[in-house]
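Limitations
The C-alpha cells in this dataset are predictions for the assembled complex, not deposited experimental models. Users should treat interface geometry with appropriate caution, especially where small molecules or nucleic acid strands are included. An illustrative entry is reproduced here so readers can see what is and is not provided.
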Amino acid sequence: MSADEPLVLGIETSCDETGVGIVRGETLLVDAIASSVDEHARFGGVVPEVASRAHLEAMVPTIERACGQAGVRLQDLDAVAVTSGPGLAGALMVGVAAAKALAVALGRPLYGVNHLAAHVAVDVVEHGPLPEPTMALLVSGGHSSLLLVPDVTSDVQSLGSTIDDAAGEAFDKVARVLGLPFPGGPHIDRAAREGGQVAIDFPRGLTNNRDMERHRFDFSFSGLKTAVARWVEAREASGEPVPVADVAASFQEAVVDVLTRKAVLACMENGVHALQVGGGVAANSRLRAMAQERCARAGIALRVPRPGLCTDNGAMVAALGAQMVARGREPSDLCLPADSSMPVTLVRA
Amino acid sequence: MLLLAIDTSTSAITAALCGGPGPVSRTVLDARGHSERLAPLLAGCLAESGHTAGDVTHVAVGTGPGPFTGLRVGMVTGTTFALARGIPVVGVCSLDALARTAAAAAGDGELLVATDARRKEVYWARYGVRAGRAHRLTDPAVARPADLPAEVRALPTAGRGPVLFPDLFPRPLPVLDVDAAALGALALEGLELGLAMPVEPLYLRRPDALTSAERASR
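Predicted assembly:
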C-alpha cells in the first residue's frame, strides 16, 4: 500500500442511510448511498427496526455498486473503516458486522470510527487538508455539537451540544405542526423563502446571561419547538389562518441565529480561524448564508462540504479511515462493539 | 469444498468450517454479544483449522427466525464475507439446524423446535423424524406457547422454549441452541441436491410502529 494514499472503504449505517464510500488518500472515488427515508416517511419519523432491516437488505448491493462505480476490487483495499457509534444500536451493528466480515475475509485492518469525527473529516476530499485546529458545528436530526478539533484522527474535544432536541429534530417537529412532510428540513427551508424572518419573535434557547455562563456552547431547541406549537395553536383557536411561511422563516431564523452565534463565539474564544459546518442541517440555505456572513465579519474561514457530503454517507467514514492510516493510527480490534452512545472524544474505538 | 456456516439466531453465536475431514466449529453463549464476538470467532475457526479466508468456497447463514438484531449480525457477516471472497452464499432455516441435532438423539416419530422469540412468545416448527433425520412438517411461525395445540406442545421439544416455559413444554430435549456444524451439514446436503436456499431473513413479525395513517385512524 502507499502509506500516504491508502485505498479505504468506509461503511456508515448509524441511522437510515446505508452508505459505502471509497477514498484513495484525500481523493473521493465513490460515495454510494441507499436510503430508507421513503419507508420512514410513512411513519412520520425514523423507525429503528425499519432502518435495520433496510441496512441488511442494502449492504451487499451498495458495496457492489460502490466498487463497480469506482473500478475498485475489494482485494485492492488497504483498510476497512466503519461507523461504530454513536447512532441507532441495531442499525450500527449491521455496518459493524459487515465491516468486520470484510476485514476477516480480506485480511485487512479495521477502523471503527466516530460518526461525528467522520462528519468533520469528510471535508478533506472537498477542500483539502483540515486546518488544525478546526472548529466544527455538526447539526443533524440526531446531533447538534460544537467540536474543537486539533487532530481529527486522534483529538476531538466537545465544547457543547444540545441538552434536549437536535436541531434537525426541531425542524421535523415544527414541520409536523405546520402540516409539512417528513423530513422537515428542506420543506421548512423552502416555505421560509416566502416568509418574514422577524415576523414572529421566537425564543433563542440558552442565550441569556445566566445560560451563557452555564451552557456557553450548548444548545436547546425543545423550548423553541414548543413555542412554535403554542403560537400555531393559539392562531388556530382564534380561527385565523396560520401564516406558514412566516412561522417557518421565523423558526428557522431562531435556530440558525443561535447555531452561528455560538459557533463564531467558540472560534473567537479559542483562537480558531476555521469553522466547518456539517450534518444534514448544513444543507439549510439560511444556515449557510448566515454562517458565511458572520464568519466573514469575524475573519474566520468557513468550510461547508457539498450537501451530499453533509448528510450521512460512507465517504466520510472512508475519509477518516484513510487519514488514520496515513497518520499511522492503530486499527481497532475485531471485537470492536457497536456503541450507540460513543462519546465524541473517542475518535477510534 | 470448504463451507463456512454461521448462525446468530439463538443465544449461541456459532460458526463452523464444514466439508473437510471433520467440521471445526466454535460456539459461545452470549445473547447480547453477537456484534462483538462473531468476527473473532470466525477468525478463530479459520486459524484452528489451518485454513485462510481464501480457502473458503461457500458460505451458509442461518436465516432465523430469531431475535432480529442478533440474526442480522450473522446474516450480514455471511453475505459480506461471501461478497469479499467472490463465493456463493446460501440460507438455511435455523430451526432446521436445531431439528437436525435433536433428531440424531430422538427416536422415530415427531419433534417440535421452540426457540425464544422474546415477548413471551416462541418461534416454532414441527418435524417428522425417521432414522435419525428430521424433515419439517410446518412453516416456521411465532406464537404464544399457550396458543399451540396441546398435542404439539406434548412433542419432544428442542430449543429454549422448554427452559422458558417448563409447564407448557413437558418433554424437553437436551438441544438448546443452534450448532453451526449442523447448519453447515444441511447446507452441504442442499447444495448437493441443488435446492434453492434463499438468503432471506425470517422475521415473521412486522416492525413495531404505526404509520401516520394508522395513528390517525386510532
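Some entries come with short summary sentences. For this one: Residues 134-308 of chain A form a domain with the Nucleotidyltransferase; domain 5 fold (CATH 3.30.420.40).
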